[in-house]
Amino acid sequence: MSAFNYSKWDDIDTDSGSEEDAAAPSSSNTHNTPGDIFDNAAALFASNKTCECLNLYHDYLVNGLKIDRSHPLPTRSAKSVDGTMTPPNVLLRLYVNLAATHFQLEEFNDAHKYSSQGGVELLRDNGWMDKQQTSKLSLPVMLLRARAFQLSAVSLLSIGMASLLSADGDRNSVNKVRPMLLRAKGDFKQAGEFCEVLDSGVEGALELKQEVLQGASKLDSLLTAHFGKGEGGLKSQTNKNSSSSTELVEEMLNEVRVRLQKKQYSAVETAVDFVLSKNINQEVQAKALLLKCRALEMAGKLRQSAGVLEEAGGILGRGEKPKAFRKAGLTYLQVRDFENGKRCFERALAELEKGGDDEGGSNTPGDGVFELDGEGNIVAEGEKKAPPPKDKINSIIANLTNLAGIQCTTKAYGEALDTIERCLKLVEGLEVEGEGKVKEKDMMKLAGEEVLSDALAGSGDFASAVTSARSVCALAEGLGEWVRCAASYLSLGHMQRYVGGGTGVAVECFEKATGMFEKGGELEQAGRTHLTVANVLKAVAASREEKEKVVEVLKKAAEAFKRGRKQVKGGGVGIGCMRGEVEACRAVAFCYRSYFDFDSGDSVDIDSVIEYFARCRAVAAVLERAGDKAGVQDLGRVSFEWANALKKRGAEGDLPRAKVGFQDAAKQFLTEKKPKEAEIAEEMLKRLRK
């Protein structure tokens, strides 16, 4: 279970705008439209104000909507308190977004509650929507429900329902479901009885059913042996003598490791909780906690994993405490829990700065201080000496850098400046020998300077921030850290605009960033930076030469995205690069269209206009087939302008293609709810057919 991707599920058709254009949330929802509410919530979520986003949704559900259940389906709808009718899928979308937001906060019971309510509305009222919308909504509702009960029998049932609800067993939907279905095999305890649901809806379900039933049998045997269901069970033996108890606990931990290797994470959690309920020494407690932490981490339950790791840090020996607290802090950062992350880094620093004997660990030699690998095995037993001073200073520097980063993120810039200055003083004081150690020191300095630049910019001292950013750029470039260097040049370019450095200086920084991103293999970022340069130049372009420069930069962006999508087939960077290529090609063609007017007699490369509109259509079609809505915006106008350019050129074969373009444009305009534009496209098509 990875960190929850809000935007992935916030993909239901409404009239709301984009997250970037969302207005600041108002203090009252009474007279806001559904689009306003979802825009405001999206803006809060994008600003990491997840709790405020959740409150807005709850307020709208309780105070903003009144559901009229008196009308027969499908006319029943939701009304706002002022009596205005809202689109019928608003209530369902609200349930899905409530579930998604609770899920992001790892409030799984609430996530299940609202996704279940969404499922009820979906099944009860699917007369509201056509088949495509029903399919689109059923999958997030059911998968949210499944993920809220990670790796349980309920997951299997919900995943099966999701696949059955998807339109006619659509293969794309089934393929989305199958990986989660396979992950869910880890919990065999009750899964067998739910497998019947899967037989008619999921590819390979019969084979999977046999695997699940076999696994259920094996796990039942294990639980019977170790949880006291019979004379040979763990409970009966632990009552006989402590030696037997210790041996069985060790045996149980070994079984837990096996379950961990087989990715049966819920079984690991259950077994570890059982071990912790026994009267065991701190070494075994720590081993069990770290096993549980690893299982939670591998299952994607990062917030819970961090909590368990922090608990383990409390009983580990002094040499291991800082490592545990720092790892917990880094894990909290992954789920954007800055308050708990900050506390963990502060605890790590406090432990590093302590002197004297082991505090908080066991007093028994060999029990209190040890290291464990990812499976909970002891790597080195026995008491260890305190870490050498240099290693200790390195650890302090790392924790100070992380702490300052959190302080920047939470806009405590004054505290961040104090923390990072202390950090950089420690870095400067390090005495190192050898090329490897010198580079290690420089990397520490780079990390500190990056945070310093952010803190200075956040505090409003842009002049100092620019100086610091230049230092970061030089240091990163010298170390061959191309992507970090690029990010610093990008930041520097934006800061130059704040301090009045001028468009030329900013563009120079952005272009350096582009080169560094390409050198580091980050072609999507390179393309995005080209688009930034084009936007800056476009704002001041007046002469034909300046306009041609904008087009040239946009073409570079399109090529960077094209190379990027060829690197990765499938999703991830490939999808991002395809979206970027659509955006860049559309921008090239529209710039030609607006800068160099066809009708004025101004010379224009009409072949390039047609080429880039056609390329935009081709890549957008791939995205559309993949169900990626973000990549196909404004496609009606693209098709219309492509057809219009073909008509004006009038070369051999152009007119049949123009007819196809106008026909596509008419359909796409209707999909985009632009009836007037659709009529114009139809009229153009009629003229060509005469």
Describe the structure.
By secondary structure, the protein is an all-alpha fold. Among the domains are: 6-220, Alpha Horseshoe (Serine Threonine Protein Phosphatase 5, Tetratricopeptide repeat); 463-521, no CATH class. 69% of the residues lie in helices and 2% in strands. It is built from 29 helices and five strands. The protein has helices at residues 6-9, 34-46, 50-64, 90-104, 108-124, 131-148, 153-165, 171-183, 205-226, 234-238, 242-261, 265-276, 282-298, 302-313, 321-334, 338-353, 389-409, 413-429, 435-458, 462-479, 482-498, 503-519, 523-540, 544-567, 573-595, 606-625, 635-649, 654-671, 675-689; strands at 65-68, 77-80, 85-86, 371-372, 378-380. The strands form two sheets. It has a three-stranded antiparallel β-sheet with strand order 1-2-3. A hairpin with an 8-residue loop joins strand 1 and strand 2 (77-80). Helix 11 (242-261) runs parallel beside helix 13. It is globular and about 90 Å long. Mean pLDDT is 69; it is low at 1-31, 71-77, 123-141, 143-206, 211-245 and 356-388.
β content, as a range? Answer: under 5%
CATH architecture of the domain at 6-220: Alpha Horseshoe
Spatial sequence of strands, sheet with the most strands? 1-2-3
- The overall pLDDT average reads 69
- Please tally the β strands and state the result: 5
Biggest sheet architecture: 3 strands, antiparallel
CATH class placement of the domain at 6-220: Mainly Alpha
Here the CATH topology of the domain at 6-220 equals Serine Threonine Protein Phosphatase 5, Tetratricopeptide repeat
- Helix and strand content put the structural class at mainly alpha
What is the share of helical residues?
Answer: 55-70%
Q: Oligomeric state of the chains?
A: single chain
Tell me, what's the shape? globular
Spans of at least 5 consecutive residues whose pLDDT stays below 50 are 1-31, 71-77, 123-141, 143-206, 211-245, 356-388
- How far apart lie the N and C ends? 58 Å
Biased composition (Acidic residues): 12-22
Region (Disordered): 1-33, 354-373
